[in-house]
Amino acid sequence: MATQILQKCSLCFATARQLGTLHAYASRRYTSHDVQTADIVISGGGMVGAGMACALGHESLLQNRRIVLLEAAPKKGFSLTEKYGNRTCTLSPASVSLFEKCGVWSKVENMRCQKVLRMQVWESCSNALISFNPTDEADEIAYVAENDVIQEALTQRLEEMKDRIEVMYNTSADSVAVPGVDKELASNAWVEIKLNNGQVLKTKLLIGSDGMNSLVRKTCQFHTLSLSYNQRGVVAVVKIDETNNNVAWQRFLPTGPIALLPMSSTAMSLIWTTSPEHANQLMSLDEESFIDAVNDAYIHDRDMNSTAGQVSDMFQKVLQNIMPGGVAMHQLPPIITGVQSGSRGAFPLGLTHASNYVRHRVALIGDAAHRIHPLAGQGVNLGFGDVIKLSEVIAKAAANGSDLGSLTYLKEYETSRQRKVLPVMATIDGLQRLYSTDATPIVLLRSLGLQATNALGPLKDYIIKGASSS
Ligand SMILES: Cc1cc2nc3c(=O)[nH]c(=O)nc-3n(C[C@H](O)[C@H](O)[C@H](O)COP(=O)(O)OP(=O)(O)OC[C@H]3O[C@@H](n4cnc5c(N)ncnc54)[C@H](O)[C@@H]3O)c2cc1C
């Protein structure tokens, strides 16, 4: 009892000390009535920022802390209609587990999502293909869900947790002052965030989840690698005849990969990566011509390289003899019969990577830290991987009674995530380049590589496990 009273007193003194310091800042830089404090501020309430808020809301060690989520956009109204959203994500098993832990997954399932039980990847320059089937037939590779559904499920969960997480919609961080960057701030001062409504929030830890043009990343002056693929991702919701739709199909064309992901027994999500000129053309086609273009992209053999085709056919026969179970049969995706009106859209594609994800009192997550090509459907999953690790290190700091913005803990987050993100990023960037050429030696090399990988069960299991772990 005596210890508890002493702890409470020392907390009061610490808080009084802290407030004193804050008022000193307040009088120097702002009028005091505009200044508020929070233990953690998350700037950016997209899927990753809202996921972070839910994860922190579930940490029992953070129950008495003030956690604020800022979102520049207004709160979106959402109602499930027959029309599907044209932006989708393939959620890995690790992301699904995070959602289960935070009470978000049941909401996604109650709205809609579709299991992916198999995946076939092949190319247009040869007959080489790889097919992923989980070892256990009941296991799914991933789930496909609309971004709007995921965002709505997170919004509903945050609404249920409003006593623990404050969400400020229509509120953007207009400028940020970070100790160590802003010369006016003492080295251990709190981060100061000026909001668009004139208020100032001071926090021990600012989490930047404000997307690819992150203000938080820019303010921290992290060296950032940014490149454009000079490609667009054309998306649409396409229709098929009713079928047991649980296979994801991806074909590499010299212009970029085209993917069809299952959404329901009659709908698929199309993500077609191509040149800006071709994307413009696809966007301007009438519906019938667009459907023809998609079906043609999956079946045409105009890119077939005869030398690579012959060698890879021979290699396939050899593999069939030595590993009879390892050779997958080539299948074709269902024929597209329609396109949901108004569902076509085109997005520029690029790569962004911050050399650091943290500094004292600041951490970046999601696209603010790393943005990758969507060809492997890993972007948001890497973001949710950040959420899992960062909430773990914050909880550890809280359990040890340490400063939540301490670099010691944040560095653990950065090291762990860069070990995961960098190899994924390099592999995806490499695949993107490898498949952007139709030069015979490269086509030959990649075709044989794909066939050999397909025949080697343990290697495929390793790839699936890697993609599942976020
Ligand atoms: C065509 C395409 C297909 C894709 N498919 C997949 C897929 O299948 N699987 C997958 O895992 N990933 C996929 N991705 C990637 C995925 O969409 C992104 O990785 C993900 O949306 C990033 O989420 P985020 O929350 O980090 O950033 P964002 O979605 O950009 O959210 C940032 C949020 O911050 C807010 N904000 C910005 N500035 C401020 C500020 N100053 N103050 C307050 N709020 C602010 C914005 O309003 C926004 O809500 C795809 C991407 C594209 C382009």
From TrEMBL:
UniProt domain FAD-binding: residue ranges: 40-418
Pathway, per record: Cofactor biosynthesis; ubiquinone biosynthesis
GO molecular-function terms, A-Z: 2-methoxy-6-polyprenolphenol 4-hydroxylase activity; 4-hydroxy-3-all-trans-polyprenylbenzoate oxygenase activity; FAD binding; oxidoreductase activity, acting on paired donors, with incorporation or reduction of molecular oxygen, reduced flavin or flavoprotein as one donor, and incorporation of one atom of oxygen
EC supergroup of this enzyme: oxidoreductase
Membrane topology: Peripheral membrane protein
Catalysed conversion reaction: a 4-hydroxy-3-(all-trans-polyprenyl)benzoate + 2 reduced [2Fe-2S]-[ferredoxin] + O2 + 2 H(+) = a 3,4-dihydroxy-5-(all-trans-polyprenyl)benzoate + 2 oxidized [2Fe-2S]-[ferredoxin] + H2O; a 2-methoxy-6-(all-trans-polyprenyl)phenol + 2 reduced [2Fe-2S]-[ferredoxin] + O2 + 2 H(+) = a 2-methoxy-6-(all-trans-polyprenyl)benzene-1,4-diol + 2 oxidized [2Fe-2S]-[ferredoxin] + H2O
Cofactor: FAD
Location in the cell: Mitochondrion inner membrane
Entry-linked Pfam families: FAD_binding_3
Record carries keyword Manganese: no
Keywords: FAD, Flavoprotein, Membrane, Mitochondrion, Mitochondrion inner membrane, Monooxygenase, Oxidoreductase, Transit peptide, Ubiquinone biosynthesis
Assigned EC number: 1.14.15.45, 1.14.15.46
PANTHER family to which the protein is assigned, alphabetical: UBIQUINONE BIOSYNTHESIS MONOOXYGENASE COQ6, MITOCHONDRIAL (PTHR43876:SF7)
Family: Belongs to the UbiH/COQ6 family.
Function: FAD-dependent monooxygenase required for two non-consecutive steps during ubiquinone biosynthesis. Required for the C5-ring hydroxylation during ubiquinone biosynthesis by catalyzing the hydroxylation of 4-hydroxy-3-(all-trans-polyprenyl)benzoic acid to 3,4-dihydroxy-5-(all-trans-polyprenyl)benzoic acid. Also acts downstream of coq4, for the C1-hydroxylation during ubiquinone biosynthesis by catalyzing the hydroxylation of 2-methoxy-6-(all-trans-polyprenyl)phenol to 2-methoxy-6-(all-trans-polyprenyl)benzene-1,4-diol.
Subunit structure as annotated in this protein's UniProt entry: Component of a multi-subunit COQ enzyme complex.
Protein name, entry field: Ubiquinone biosynthesis monooxygenase COQ6, mitochondrial
Species this protein is from: Dreissena polymorpha
